[in-house]
Design a protein that fits this description.
Elements: H1 2-29, H2 67-86, E1 88-89, E2 92-95, H3 98-110, E3 115-131, H4 137-149, E4 155-156, E5 166-171, H5 174-188, E6 193-208, E7 212-213, H6 214-221, E8 231-234
Antiparallel strand pairs: 1-7, 2-6, 2-8, 3-5, 3-6, 4-5
GO molecular function: peptidoglycan binding
Protein name: Sporulation related protein
Keywords: Signal
């Protein structure tokens, strides 16, 4: 009986030991295994992942403007505006002779430019051609008669400091005065003088109704023959 009891005790001990080892092995096998969140898709090796940056980064052109960007844009607009305004002219055309005034008016109308007219006065350079006074008024009249035969217009000044001088004409251009001086001297065989001075004269000013670009104004000026005009042009920036 003792031997039977001993066998039963050893058998129970062995069973209990086996249960302990089994429980230990089961604990090891039941350790949690990592897995991605349920909402995250699992991609296989052969599958291509989409570019996640497209869903995250906003394109540069769609980025909202910062205050600094707005200020820079405003400054650029002002610079462009100033550049455009700097190119605009408000010219004033000043003329002395009525015939010249009518010529310029016609050109402005042909160019489709509206303008206003105002009267003014001003000093202009003048060049007077004359022959020095002879000893007497009678000799001065003889000179005028001789010039008339050569078809040269002249007359005798009868008063003032220039009395008895023979006047040959008044010129507004120095070049034209010098040309006339050479021609009359050659025809008459007499010395011809030029007296340069300034004289108060009546003027006509033409003002454009609206500003004009410098490029267009240059095209307007090309339609004028300056060699035939007594004209002064002020290119005033607006």
């Amino acid at each position: 009986m003792k031997w039977l009891f001993l066998v039963m005790v050893l058998g129970n001990a062995g069973f209990v030991a086996w249960q302990g080892f089994s429980a230990a092995d089961a604990g090891v096998l039941q350790q949690p295994v990592y897995a991605p969140p349920v909402s995250e898709r699992i991609y296989l090796v052969g599958e291509v992942r989409p570019d996640e940056s497209d869903d995250v980064v906003t394109p540069v052109e769609q980025q909202p403007l910062t205050e600094a960007d707005k200020v820079l844009a405003s400054l650029q607009r002002e610079v462009d505006k100033v550049s455009t305004e700097d190119d605009l002219l408000c010219p004033i055309v000043t003329l002395e002779r009525n015939a010249d005034t009518l010529t310029v008016m016609d050109v402005l109308r042909q160019q489709g430019l509206a303008f206003s007219e105002r009267k003014a006065t001003g000093k202009r350079d003048k060049y007077w051609l004359y022959i020095s006074a002879p000893a007497t008024a009678e000799k001065a009249q003889d000179i005028v008669a001789a010039l008339k035969l050569k078809r040269i217009d002249s007359y005798v000044i009868s008063r003032g400091d220039m009395k008895n001088r023979i006047s040959l004409g008044l010129f507004s251009s120095k070049d034209r005065a010098e040309q006339a001086q050479a021609s009359i001297s050659e025809q008459s065989g007499m010395d011809v003088n030029i007296y340069a001075h300034q004289r108060e004269v009546g003027l006509t000013e033409l003002l454009l109704a609206e500003p004009i670009t410098s490029e267009r104004w240059e095209s307007v000026m090309m339609a004028l023959d300056f060699s035939k005009l007594l004209i002064k042009i002020e290119k005033n920036p607006c």
